[in-house]
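The data are passed on as follows:
___
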Amino acid sequence: MESELFMGAKRVVAEKKNVVAEKKTTIRLAAVGDLHCKKDSVGQFAPWLSTLNGRVDVLLLCGDLTDYGTPEEAEVLAKELSSVRVPMLGVLGNHDFESGRPEDVARILGQAGVTLLSGDSVEVHGVGFTGVKGFAGGFGAHTLGHWGEPEIKRFVDYAIEESLKLESGLARLRTEHRVVLLHYAPVRGTIEGEPLEIFPFLGCSRLEEPLLRYPLSAVFHGHAHRGQLEAKTSRDQPVYNVAMPLLRRSFADRPPYRVVELTAKTAEGKLPLAGE
């Protein structure tokens, strides 16, 4: 069952359906996560966000959009996003839940034009998108199992629930290109570089399982500030870590978002030339 958390955002995008449904033969995606917007972040994002206009077709926001998950932070970010003139899709991150008011964060960002996904599917310019926040749990043979204390089982149940929502969203897409938004990492490759001790808290292989059952053009996530820019699933599907701190360190001479171009009649995302 879809969470009611994002109903406000869905109503906003429904009103703009005729705008975002237009198909294109080439679509350029800009993706970034971990903005960690604070109450005093006024003016810090709008200058580089405005560079998206005329350059890309969709902005993808991969969680931790606020720092403490307060409505005040969400209001600041909403104003910063007002300079963006392209469709915006996103997922929340763990920081957006910190103050216990994720529904307010979702409502405010929804009113600002961001379509927040939690197992939902949308089509923009002929490309299908779905997303969930995801959750922790570890990778491969070391993934935390559903065994032992009730507290452990509840932890694992939540990770499974996020995976099932992602599966549901993917199953509804019928587009040539399918793109997934996450906050937590679905593969270990993009968190390499982080302290080994926190690997289990940065993502979970349960998020990779539904990805492997569908042809995908790109998967985007954040959360791992010191990870790697990209990796692949076990089916060679491209996974991009777009945590803003990582992008700032890796591309200090350009705005902190990753651009991936999708073209009709291909199932692969193509990265633009250096400097794009």
Observations:
- Helices lie at 7-15, 17-20, 46-49, 71-81, 102-111, 150-171, 208-211, 244-250.
- The chain has eight helices and twelve strands.
